[in-house]
Amino acid sequence: MKETQNSIGAYLKLHWKTAVFLVVLLIGIGLADIFVDSYMRRLLNLCAIYVIVSLAMNLVNGFTGQFSLGQAGFMAIGAYTVAVFTVPIESRAAIFYLEPMAPFLANIQLPFIVALILGGLASVVVAFFIGSPCLRLRGDYLAIATLGFSEIIRIVFTNTQSITNGALGIKSIPTISSLWWTYGTALLIIIATVLLINSTYGRAFKSIREDEIAAEAMGVGLFKTKMTSFLIGAFFTGIGGGLFAALLGTVDPKQFYFTLTYNFLLIIVLGGMGSISGTIIASFVVTLGQEALRFLDEPMAFGLDLPIFRPGLRMVVFSFLLMVIVLFYRKGLMGTNELTWDFIAQKYRSIKKKLSGKKTSTEGGGN
Amino acid sequence: MSLLRTENVIMQFGGVVAVNDLNIDIKKGELAALIGPNGAGKTTAFNVITGVYTPTSGKVLFTPTDKNGATTEIDITGKKPDKITGMGVARTFQNIRLFKELTVLENVLVATHLNADYSFLSAMLRAPKARKGERQAKMDCEFLLERLGLIDLKNEKASSLPYGQQRHLEIARALATKPQLLLLDEPAAGMNPQETDELTDLIFKLKTDFDLTIFMIEHHMDLVMEISDHIYVLDFGCTIAKGTPDEVQNNPKVIEAYLGVDADVED
């Protein structure tokens, strides 16, 4: 007992900044949960879900170096699992009015948390079947297969009317409005990912990204390790999809076009392939950025009748901003670095040095 | 007792026979060398032994000693490289293959992955077992880095190291897999005479300290002749000579392969 107390004490001494940061963060979420309006609340919830899914994608794409484009599909599986199992039984007849729900599902209703985990596990099972053939190969096969899969799953969900209600989608899913669900899950997943990346498994993932032949020669089983990463990614994505369904209160196949995957691809490229903190920052930047630029979609006229501001301009400006970022930060905002205290201190020092360097040079010029 | 044997190994790529009828027999505790002109098939032989290639025909047999001291001969022909490494065969690469973006310490830690006895779930929860395993692995690796004189650079990126130290790091990484047989593919390539001398000493020391059997490809003849117990000479995939350094040095076939035939003699 005393030993554990000691070790906790030592841990706090070493990581007090992180501990303080976590407490501040939790208080921040708590305050936000009480005070923000419903628009901002939904936006912040969406940010957290994007953090979860992008992190899962970065685990496979950024850390393990396997190019997977199946996020939309895995999200759909998680979202539909939550939808099917949490819709209140009494409202099911009204939702499934074209074709009644399959009898073996019609009377099952699960608590949200159980359905959420079930959604993650369903993603894992599907991921296993996609991964088994594809992860044995080298090259871009995984990208092609997963991209195809996410389209297939969407079409399957459109056509299995008695389970998913087809193109009509499922409505009146009990919604979550508290920030704690999304941010709590996001926080847990971030911590689990950080610990995983800093363990022998994380190093094995990175070694595969760096050099497959050398990794294999050092005793890292390629298939097994890639599969581990792929399945963990699928689990987190399924969870993210489940939260997405519960946030919106409705799912339909059109939400899960493969363009959804590109949002996450954008986030991880922008944040840095192989950086957890970069992914988190980019998730907020992209999600909030797309909303903040919405004013560009509304018509505006400055005296003259210039019809520039019209729906779609937002995306033009957004893609321009992205190009600028990619031009100046080729490896994303964070590269493969993490936003640790050391990193911040180092950056702070280098900026300070630059500034003072400039000052002295201008003074020198004055003489 | 032989640690590694190959029986009539043939490796063909289409019409090219890269290794033809290779029979080697490396005894436990010895230092054997594989030499030959460029393109003789030396690295291909290594790739066959470590499982990168499956030979067209023939067998590779490895006899590891387990924890209880018992030995059994295992057929490792065509097994996956990571399985073969797990049995106790480690290697370095001719054209350095470090994990460039990882730090020096991380590079070595990757090689302890096969001995890690905790699951990814306990890693995600940082369970006591995972923490203990991690601590142990770090200690082992730091010891190895100390041995190879890289401990001060442990937090540097591997790609930022000078060439000679990258070679040392490759050896440290191979040792971290706890091998019984170490395959060194041109460890002294690109080194100056003084560095080569230091490397010779190092290899010799590591061999005794870690109870290793070493099989190496090398072009520096003085190094090879000085430290090897047995030498195999390859030319165009065929074994043209084998024996002790003295025997090989005076073998006319070897001289012919390296220096060519004197035109006057041939006539």
Automatic annotation (TrEMBL), chain B:
Gene Ontology MF terms: ATP binding
The signal peptide stretch is none
Domain ABC transporter stretches? 4-261
Give a yes or no for keyword Transit peptide in this entry: no
Q: Which key words are in the record? A: ATP-binding, Nucleotide-binding, Transport
Query: What's a Pfam family in this record?
Result: BCA_ABC_TP_C
SUPFAM superfamilies per record: P-loop containing nucleoside triphosphate hydrolases
Gene3D superfamilies per UniProt: P-loop containing nucleotide triphosphate hydrolases (3.40.50.300)
Report the PANTHER family cross-referenced here: AMINO ACID ABC TRANSPORTER ATP-BINDING PROTEIN (PTHR45772:SF7), CONSERVED COMPONENT OF ABC TRANSPORTER FOR NATURAL AMINO ACIDS-RELATED (PTHR45772)
Name under which the protein is recorded: ATP-binding cassette domain-containing protein
